[in-house]
Amino acid sequence: MNKVVKNVEEALVGIQDGMTLMLGGFGLCGIPENSIGHLVKLGTKNLTCISNNAGVDDFGIGLMLQAKQVKKMISSYVGENDEFERQMLSGELEVDLIPQGSLAERCRAGGAGIPAFFTPAGYGTEVAEGKEVRVFNGKPHILESALTADFAIVKAWKGDTEGNLIFKAAARNFNPMMAMAGKITVAEVEELVPAGTLDPNHIHTPGIFVQRIFQGEKFEKRIEQRTVRKND
Amino acid sequence: MALDKNGIAQRIAQELKNGWYVNLGIGIPTLVANYIPQGIEVEFQSENGILGMGPFPFDGEEDADLINAGKQTITTVPGASFFDSATSFAMIRGQHVQLTVLGAMEVSQNGDIANWKIPGKMVKGMGGAMDLVASAENIIVAMMHSNKVGESKILKACTLPLTGVGCVKKVVTELAVLEIKDGKFHLIERAPGVSVEEIISKTEGDLVVPDVVPEMHFD
């Protein structure tokens, strides 16, 4: 089944004010930067964004924060940008912080038809407030619910016309689970190839989870912390 | 003399066992990778989806798609693998990772740890710390014994919001190696030249002190 859309404009058709979006990536690594750029152009407001991080001031989800498009962030680690901090402290932005493993599993569960699961992460902390506790094998666990989204927007290295995806290195991160958990999943890829080009043995995300795929116009792939060793 | 951050890392590295998969947190824990004892082979896990993390890349060889959990550019070693975040935390929760080393703002004598939030200050989030401490069988905390104004961070009870309860078994500070059992800190080793009295005076929690406290030994 052909999932190809012409461009980012077509890929994001149907995104409306107040929707919940999942955005793949860890830090600035593996984020759907073309789609984020277009979301800023669209000016869609009151969005709930589920993403491990919230970008930096002038890149990633930080751009949507600057444009005041985000009502709520659901993340595990945020605040690498000043505008985020300002909006959070002034109460303009609602923030729900979730342990990283629970965030990943909640997305996976959402896509896998598991409504909730027990995890030990966060037991005895403020994360556990209001959540059911049960003891398994002598150890307390808390009940965490699945997450889904109106749109999941992911970024892959290579994709084919069927929507099959291959990720590169650590840019995989949250992208595969979010792809599963979107009612509509949009994949932007660095390289879009005809079906049959990618070896089925090497597919990370099967095309069934992807509704729309396009090749991104350009990828800046910014590095957040450039660390190198001396050539000696 | 009290250890510096590298000294703390070097002492923790002595705990590594051959064949272990190890997750190192940000800060002092990261330095542990520089002091792997000879003859010991371990593999480092980065919770953003890497097993077999190597050193920083040479200038010009950095790859935006290859970063560690601190968002720093890194490399991989032969035999490395990449995976998604759910698989990564399956390794952690499923106790396939043998050792977790992380920093802390406070630890308590029943093994509680606080390292993610200071009320009234900007909260950045817990990242993977809550998953790591809730699941790892073997957690070593690398931290300073007291804060900048000299108040002990080795406490009867944590004052800051918790990251996990009853999970820490060993603490290495600039002054001492402490074990936590039966609701008390136990003094195992002291840093070279550091007196037992100094450690006692800087430990607010209950501390069990044996008759003889050996000095840490570095090759």
Report on this model:
The longest helix of chain A has 13 residues, at 100-112. Chain A is built from six helices and eleven strands. In chain A, the strands form two sheets. In chain A, strands 1, 2, 3, 4, 8, 9, 10 and 11 form an eight-stranded mixed β-sheet that branches. In chain A, strands 5-7-6 form a three-stranded antiparallel β-sheet. In chain A, helix 5 packs parallel to helix 6. Chain A is α/β, with parallel strands linked by helices. The mean pLDDT of chain A is 96. Chain B has 219 residues and is an alpha/beta fold. Chain B has helices at residues 5-13, 28-31, 85-93, 129-135, 196-201; strands at residues 21-24, 43-46, 50-53, 76-82, 99-103, 106-108, 113-114, 139-142, 154-155, 170-172, 176-181, 184-190, 207-208. In chain B, the strands form two sheets. Chain B has a ten-stranded mixed β-sheet. Chain B has a three-stranded mixed β-sheet with strand order 7-6-9, with no helix packed on it. In chain B, strand 2 and strand 3 (50-53) form a beta hairpin. The longest helix of chain B has 9 residues, at 5-13. Chain B is globular. Classes of the chains: A alpha/beta (232), B alpha/beta (219).
Descriptors:
heterodimer; A: 232 residues; alpha/beta; 21% helix; 27% strand; B: 219 residues; ten-stranded mixed β-sheet; three-stranded mixed β-sheet; 5 helices
State the major sheet of chain A: 8 strands, mixed
**Percent of residues in helices of chain B:** 10-25%
Radius of gyration of chain B: 17 Å
Secondary-structure-based class of chain B equals: alpha/beta
Percent strand of chain A: 25-35%
Order of strands across the biggest sheet of chain B?
4-3-2-1-5-8-10-11-12-13
By secondary-structure content and strand pairing, the structural class of chain A works out as: alpha/beta
- The averaged pLDDT of chain B comes out at 96
- Subunit organisation of the chains: heterodimer
Question: How many beta-strand elements of chain B?
Answer: 13
Largest sheet of chain B: 10 strands, mixed
Proportion of residues in β-strands of chain B = 15-25%
- Overall mean pLDDT of chain A: 96
Q: Radius of gyration of chain A, Cα only, in angstroms?
A: 18 Å
Please bin the fraction of helical residues of chain A.
Answer: 10-25%
Terminal residue distance of chain B: 16 Å
Shape descriptor of chain A reads globular
Number of strands of chain A: 11
